């Protein structure tokens, strides 16, 4: 399992105008989408595809989110989402940091706890050992 000391998994993205509100900044709900996209990319980089999990009746679900908004993103800006993951009992905690590029201003810090259900039963989290 990746730890806080390991190099994070990083993806780069660009804000689309449709993600901004009337004030010209990214609507808060879209930061959740950015974090989710980073988690999916992380899983794919480790050979895990959601459609394959669903076919096997394995479901990864968000159990808890904690977001700290620090600086807004605006339309057209490039940013990166850096993600690390660590197992916490039956959960995997993804830590995401969204940083504006090129100046590297931290815009958001998030902790997202994910659980795993197989055949509709909560697991002890052994699925997350796949990443370590």
Automatic annotation (TrEMBL):
Gene3D superfamilies documented for this protein: Hotdog Thioesterase
Family annotation (CDD domains) = 4HBT
Give the matching Pfam families: 4HBT_2
* GO MF term list: fatty acyl-CoA hydrolase activity
Q: Which UniProt keywords apply?
A: Hydrolase
Q: Does the keyword Acetylation apply?
A: no
Q: Which family does it belong to?
A: Belongs to the 4-hydroxybenzoyl-CoA thioesterase family.
Q: What is this protein called?
A: Thioesterase
């Amino acid at each position: 399992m990746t730890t806080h000391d390991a190099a994070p998994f990083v993806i780069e993205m660009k804000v689309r105008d449709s993600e901004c509100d009337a004030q010209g900044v990214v609507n808060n709900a879209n930061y959740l989408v950015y974090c989710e996209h980073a988690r999916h990319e992380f899983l794919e980089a480790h050979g895990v595809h959601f459609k394959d999990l669903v076919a096997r009746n394995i479901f990864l679900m968000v159990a808890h989110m904690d977001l700290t908004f620090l600086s807004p993103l605006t339309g057209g800006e490039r940013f990166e989402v850096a993600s690390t993951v660590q197992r916490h009992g039956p959960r995997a905690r993804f830590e995401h940091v969204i940083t504006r590029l090129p100046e590297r201003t931290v815009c958001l810090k998030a902790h997202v706890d994910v659980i795993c259900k197989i055949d509709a039963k909560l697991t002890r989290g052994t699925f997350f050992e796949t990443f370590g």
